[in-house]
Amino acid sequence: MTALKAETFDVLILGGGVNGAGIARDLALRAKTAGHPLKIALIDKRHFSSGTSGRNSQLIHGGLRYLKYMEFGLVREALRERSTLLEIAPHLVEPLAFLIPMYSQFAKYFYGTGLWMYDTLAGSRNISPHRGIALAELEKLEPGLNRHELVSAAVFWDARVHSARFVLENLFEAEANGAVLMNYLEAVGFQQQRDEWTVTVRDALDCSEFEIRARKLINTTGPWAGEVWPEENKLRLVRGSHIVLPRLNQSDNAIAYFEENGRIIFFIPWGSKNDLTLVGTTDVDHDGSPDSVHISEEEQQYLLKIAADIYPEAKGMQPIATYSALRPLVQTEGSSATSTSREHRIWASADGVVHVAGGKYTTYRSMSEEAADLAAPPELREVHPTASVPLNGNSRAAIAKLKAELDPAVVKAYGVRAPRVLERVRRLGSLEKAQIEEAVECEWVERLPDLLQVSTYWGYERPWDPASLRELAAEMGSRLGWSEVRIEEEVTQAAPGI
Description:
By secondary structure, this protein is α/β, with parallel strands linked by helices. It folds into 3 domains: 2-52 and 164-234 and 341-380, FAD/NAD(P)-binding domain, CATH 3.50.50.60; 56-161 and 236-330, 2-Layer Sandwich (D-Amino Acid Oxidase, Chain A, domain 2); 395-497, no CATH class. It has helices spanning 2-6, 18-34, 72-88, 105-122, 135-141, 163-176, 225-228, 297-310, 364-375, 396-405, 408-414, 418-428, 431-442, 448-455, 466-480, 484-494, and strands at 8-9, 11-14, 40-43, 59-60, 94-102, 131-132, 152-160, 180-182, 185-193, 196-203, 209-214, 217-219, 235-246, 254-258, 264-270, 276-280, 284-285, 321-330, 344-348, 354-358. Strand 10 and strand 11 (209-214) form a beta hairpin. Helix 2 runs parallel beside helix 6 (163-176). The longest helix has 18 residues, at 105-122.
């Protein structure tokens, strides 16, 4: 906080989701690569990645369904970026096979054509070509799948990610290269004088206020953008919701099911023990506050019905957990929530503020590069290292070596930081305590939900009662100096969110 008060920054980024984190990483890496000093700061009103960027479908994908809307450019860009992220972040981004069951001859030819186009657009960057699956093979792979009127099936490839930890990984590298990062700081006032901004910020933890000075502002506040600069951002807020069920997938394939209206619903093997199924997502216009986003009863029943239609054994199941987030999409005249384009828009307003709107999680790196080009000084505008530099040092060679020597599951979550986490395990006696300590000391965790929904996804992996939450809060509190009253407050506030 001292640096935020004392420095005048070249760039201040508002919003610590994947775009803000990506821009911070990009600018800091440009400065390091070129040997050009650049003072960068990033703030967020809550914890980093606690909004849309951490509560999505946990996929890095090209967007197969967007071919239906002829968005070939978007799909091509996303497939290119998928390949890049598989290369620069191999611990967090890994290939995942998707099985498509087809329940009509029309679906067989329609989606077969789409898969051919998907492979063609990926070109040499394709993970693997799609292939047809004989019904006998399908029955062996997924014996619980509904086979009534099943005509055909195919397998194609995309990738999975722990999306919240991926944001943190970008922030780790940005900070290592000199960026100043702080969460729980909300921008509440702006004043521009000549070529400098004074931003008044409020600390959400103690309600104190102070000022940050910066020459350039970048607005990556996502669903909150319209609240910060309403005249510049006419966004369509679309809610996407997910439910978590006991494991339905018998194989390691995810299921991609196209329902009758063309929506694609994913069934993804999920959880730290891989014993759950993540089902989603929905597309529903959200009219409320971006601070209050929850699954509706209609959305929950919609997902449960599809789950039971595809896996009859799911009939009567209730979700272990749910989560929802908002997609801040660029308005498209006459489109539905489902068909609204995921194209992005990046521009500088008349006051010089750079705004980022729309886009897909998968294309965050290219979007960050485009935004950084607008904000960087002339000496750095042609410096573009982020596609080739391993994210925070997590090269393929480094990850392969660590997986050969250490617990692969820990390496998958923490990458090059895994040795430190495992040293904590040896000292503390359990992985859970080690992860709590790592989160508190190294991942900007300030609240119980930060641990449960960002550093880990424990909050979505099982039902929680107050006693269990209290144990976690006490473990955190012993490191953060929480009083008994504060521990009880954290339990009370965390319980509704999980």
